[in-house]
UniProtKB/TrEMBL annotation:
GO terms for cellular component: membrane. It is found in: Membrane. It is a multi-pass membrane protein. InterPro entries: Sugar_P_trans_dom, TPT_transporter. The keyword Transmembrane helix applies. The chain crosses the membrane at residues 42-66, 78-104, 124-142, 149-170, 176-193, 205-223, 235-257, 269-291. Residues 48-328 form the Sugar phosphate transporter domain. It holds the Pfam family TPT. This is GDP-fucose transporter 1 isoform X1. The lineage of its organism: Eukaryota, Metazoa, Chordata, Craniata, Vertebrata. It comes from the Eukaryota. Keywords: Membrane, Transmembrane, Transmembrane helix. It comes from Phyllostomus discolor.
Length: 372
């Protein structure tokens, strides 16, 4: 019996779309098939989960520290955050196209969707791409102006914006307990800003970019869900289009902001070390999307959120130790409030969804009452 080649092409994208569905909705995929990994021995599954979570932590933390070096290093002295972001998008585009070519040359060996530019699809993806560009740009600008230790607090309002936008755009209400956790996050954010100001290390510019980055992260999740059907539910196709469009839109920004002129006088422009670090940053940017999906696949969306919160805590501690900073008790309290509020929100949402799944629908109640 022969397989339909079209079904083979759509198999990987559909799986990734289900992973994204779980990440956005915060619950299991109702159409998913039983995971074969559940049949594996407990120790093997535990080892796989530990490796995947470790890979996510190492990739994410390394990317933040490397980007901080590229954006605000006294030894590098490169004042071109848009160029750094542009180059990372370029690396991601090349990697996506390269993997697509390998998959076409070695079918069955490399699992990657076929990628080609379609102007009609690009027009449909354009609104999301603008949000995506804003998200990665504000993320990098926030990291440029604030320390790595404060970076997590500076970008901590994503959950709050998720709740706000869900109400404004989707008319979805939020429970009292979930709103309470958002209040804890906002309190931790303001306390962190206050303590950064008390220590003389507060950057209002970086904080503003952090708030804008949080807003764009929330908008990106909403628009991603809306645009995914345009690319047949393929995360990699969407990644490819987003980064291609980003590369095109970044070019006029580089001219307008004078960063191309600044690059002409950059001392290390011909340094192999500089381009190696830039390329490595692009590789981490490409890898973070893959390891995020991998962690969700081997654990769950809720566990992924908890892992991300724990990772942020470890990242903050490492930053304080690495940069030899001294922080006050209230500064650490602000971080704990942000991390605790985020974890509590994840737990509350998970508990609420589990409760909804367990409650029978009204139609089922009517049917059961009709039975003799």
């Amino acid at each position: 019996m022969q397989r339909d080649p079209g079904s083979c092409k759509l198999r990987a994208p559909l799986k990734r779309s289900r992973i994204l569905h779980m990440a956005l909705m915060g619950g299991p995929d109702p159409y998913s098939e039983p995971d074969a990994s559940q049949e594996k021995p407990f120790l093997l599954r535990a080892l796989q989960i530990a490796l995947v979570v470790s890979l996510y932590w190492v990739t994410s933390i390394s990317m933040v520290f490397l980007n901080k070096y590229l954006l605000d290093s006294s030894s590098l002295q490169l004042d071109a955050p848009i160029f750094v972001t542009f180059y990372q998008c370029l690396v991601t585009t090349v990697l996506c196209k390269g993997l697509s070519t390998l998959a076409a040359c070695f079918p069955g060996t490399v699992d990657f969707p076929t990628l080609c530019l379609d102007l009609r699809v690009a027009r449909s993806v354009l609104p999301l791409s603008v949000v995506f560009i804003s998200m990665i740009t504000f993320n990098n600008l926030c990291l440029k102006y604030v320390g790595v230790a404060f970076y997590n607090v500076g970008r901590s309002l994503t959950t709050v914006f998720n709740v706000l936008l869900s109400y404004l755009l989707l008319k979805q209400t939020t429970s009292f307990y979930a709103l309470l956790t958002c209040g804890v996050i906002i309190g931790g954010f303001w306390l962190g800003v206050d303590q950064e100001g008390a220590e003389g290390t507060l950057s209002w510019t970086g904080t503003l970019f952090g708030v804008l980055a949080s807003l764009c992260v929330s908008l990106n999740a909403i628009y991603t869900k809306k645009v995914l059907p345009v690319v047949d539910g393929s995360i990699w196709r969407l990644t490819f289009y987003n980064n291609v469009i980003a590369c095109v839109l970044f070019l006029p920004l580089l001219l307008l902001l004078g960063e191309l002129q600044a690059l002409r006088f950059f001392v290390q422009l011909g340094s192999a070390h500089f381009w190696g670090m830039m390329t490595l940053g692009g590789l981490f940017g490409f890898a973070i999307g893959y390891v995020t999906g991998l962690q969700i696949k081997f654990t769950s969306p809720l566990t992924h959120n908890v892992s991300g919160t724990a990772k942020a805590c470890a990242q903050t501690v490492l930053a304080v130790l690495y940069y030899e900073e001294t922080k006050s008790f209230l500064w650490w309290t602000s971080n704990l409030m942000v991390l605790g509020g985020s974890s509590a929100y994840t737990w509350v949402r998970g508990w609420e969804m589990k409760k909804v799944q367990e409650e029978p629908s009204p139609k089922e109640d009517e049917k059961s009452s009709m039975r003799v």
